[in-house]
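<purpose> Linking amino acid order to shape
<body> The protein record starts here
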Amino acid sequence: MCNGCVQKEYPDRGNTCLENGSYLMNYQGCASCHKRDFVLINNKSTEEEDGEEIVTYDHVCKNCDHVIARHEYTFSVVDEYQEYTMLCMLCGKAEDSISVLPDDPRQSAPLF
């Protein structure tokens, strides 16, 4: 992982969790070959562990195969909520939780 390739390390992305792709707004350019070109995805793997899906891959420079960042995305179902997390030096850090019910009980207005 290379902090010379990104504008900001682990930017806060709120609830935007990427299962694939790259956050190019944070890509400064390759610190190895000094070119700003496409970012490729290599070594993508998906694992399931105790009901949690974990997707990992490397962001790699198209020109010199320099590893820019390691991306980790997780998905799980906890109680009645789908939980998502993302951690990546390039794409940032984020968490999200969505109800599996038609109406999210956390969004309901109190009756009194």
User: Anything to note?
Assistant: The two ends are 52 Å apart (CA to CA). The chain has no helices and five strands. The chain has one domain: 3-99.
